[in-house]
Amino acid sequence: MKSVSNKFLVSAKGFAAYFFSGKQSVVYYSTSVVRTPYHVVDPSPWPMIMGANLWGVAAMFICWVNEISLDSLYWGIPLFVLTFYSWVRDIINEATFQGFHTEKVQSGLTLGFILFLISELMLFFSFFWAFFHSALSSSVEIGCCWPPVGLECLDWSKVPLHNTALLVASSASITLSHNYLQWGDIWVATATYIATLGLSVMFIKNQYEEYAWSSFSISDGVYGSCFFMLTGLHGLHVIGGTCGLLFCFVRMMLLQFSSEHHVALTLAIWYWHFVDIVWLGLFFIIYIWGS
Amino acid sequence: MASFLGKLRFLKSPLTRRLATSVDASYKDSLPAKVSGHPEAEIKRWWAITLWMIGVCAVTRVYQMMDENHGKRPEFIPYQHLRIRKKAFPWKEGSQKTLFWCPITNAGSEGYLEMTPEEELKWGKYLHGH
């Protein structure tokens, strides 16, 4: 019992020293030297704070939609930015500067990311299901046909086709950039990376223009709901993917990636390919088949 | 100010290293195991795909711009299943206007709404012709 309580006090002291000093503290308990390739992470307050923070962000959204006062919840956004920055900084320190990310750790991170991508796929799958539910057996309220009566669909050969070309081109150029990084030529990798970012910004702008001029909205029956839920969610994923790529671009410029070890960049590129594939599904199912 | 500039010194080594010559082209010594056996062929292939796709983008962009008809207003028929307004959106004029509101192509539940002066400045020229 005595040894257990000592360990608790010592680790709590380490935790407090970490939290209040803002840097990695020396942990005082006498463990053996780490002999495994796995990374046993030091105690960190960020996951707990992030959990509480995300609750606050969710509460903020609910209050905003139901027109309840947000005065007590504004701490959510700055705390999110600070926590996210601190957590990511710690991971980068552990990986790039302290060398904890062995092959085993890299493969673990990759597996975790694959599971995350599968969960995102399930999210889109559920909205596609909702679309097919309404489109395959159209109810009498919308005129027993799809698209519903009175709704002017968008021409798939105009804006959506251009968007498809933009995303496919950006997937190709990011692959090219990745190959150049692995080959060792960082200058061409940078140039093709900037082309990728440019193409994705063009996609976002084009999609925004389409939204701004669309003759139907999210409150135009089940077609509007399905369409804007799917394309809107996809648009948010494109914006998130672009932010991820931009972040990895900055890290690449700071030479934190080597030609063999660049897990964050690989995962960001996989996310981008995922976004591209979801768009192809959207294009063929919603825009072409659904009109 | 001095401490802020001092913190920027972490940029010094990446920048000076980048300005040095890039990796020597004898890549065969340092070829990572993950890259395929013929990197030049693979890179040539991806260049071809990328450049062709950028060409396709240019073509689709021109085709998209050919048919841009911003002033057209669809005929308004008061359908029950469209323009549903059961709950107001949580922004100003949320009872009528959606998020990406276009006063030319979007109608309220009873018909097209009058444009406010700000909307008139931005959208008026499309509706009344150039």
Automatic annotation (TrEMBL), chain A:
<keyword id="KW-1133">Transmembrane helix</keyword>
<dbReference type="InterPro" id="IPR035973">
    <property type="entry name" value="Cyt_c_oxidase_su3-like_sf"/>
</dbReference>
<feature type="transmembrane region" description="Helical">
    <location>
        <begin position="46"/>
        <end position="65"/>
    </location>
</feature>
<keyword id="KW-0812">Transmembrane</keyword>
<feature type="domain" description="Heme-copper oxidase subunit III family profile">
    <location>
        <begin position="34"/>
        <end position="291"/>
    </location>
</feature>
<keyword id="KW-1278">Translocase</keyword>
<dbReference type="Pfam" id="PF00510">
    <property type="entry name" value="COX3"/>
</dbReference>
<dbReference type="GO" id="GO:0005739">
    <property type="term" value="C:mitochondrion"/>
</dbReference>
<keyword id="KW-0472">Membrane</keyword>
<feature type="transmembrane region" description="Helical">
    <location>
        <begin position="72"/>
        <end position="88"/>
    </location>
</feature>
<dbReference type="GO" id="GO:0016020">
    <property type="term" value="C:membrane"/>
</dbReference>
<feature type="transmembrane region" description="Helical">
    <location>
        <begin position="186"/>
        <end position="204"/>
    </location>
</feature>
<dbReference type="InterPro" id="IPR000298">
    <property type="entry name" value="Cyt_c_oxidase-like_su3"/>
</dbReference>
<keyword id="KW-0496">Mitochondrion</keyword>
<feature type="transmembrane region" description="Helical">
    <location>
        <begin position="236"/>
        <end position="257"/>
    </location>
</feature>
<feature type="transmembrane region" description="Helical">
    <location>
        <begin position="108"/>
        <end position="132"/>
    </location>
</feature>
<protein>
    <recommendedName>
        <fullName>Cytochrome c oxidase subunit 3</fullName>
    </recommendedName>
</protein>
<comment type="function">
    <text>Component of the cytochrome c oxidase, the last enzyme in the mitochondrial electron transport chain which drives oxidative phosphorylation. The respiratory chain contains 3 multisubunit complexes succinate dehydrogenase (complex II, CII), ubiquinol-cytochrome c oxidoreductase (cytochrome b-c1 complex, complex III, CIII) and cytochrome c oxidase (complex IV, CIV), that cooperate to transfer electrons derived from NADH and succinate to molecular oxygen, creating an electrochemical gradient over the inner membrane that drives transmembrane transport and the ATP synthase.</text>
</comment>
<dbReference type="InterPro" id="IPR024791">
    <property type="entry name" value="Cyt_c/ubiquinol_Oxase_su3"/>
</dbReference>
<dbReference type="GO" id="GO:0004129">
    <property type="term" value="F:cytochrome-c oxidase activity"/>
</dbReference>
<dbReference type="InterPro" id="IPR013833">
    <property type="entry name" value="Cyt_c_oxidase_su3_a-hlx"/>
</dbReference>
<feature type="transmembrane region" description="Helical">
    <location>
        <begin position="269"/>
        <end position="289"/>
    </location>
</feature>
<dbReference type="GO" id="GO:0006123">
    <property type="term" value="P:mitochondrial electron transport, cytochrome c to oxygen"/>
</dbReference>
<dbReference type="InterPro" id="IPR033945">
    <property type="entry name" value="Cyt_c_oxase_su3_dom"/>
</dbReference>
<comment type="similarity">
    <text>Belongs to the cytochrome c oxidase subunit 3 family.</text>
</comment>
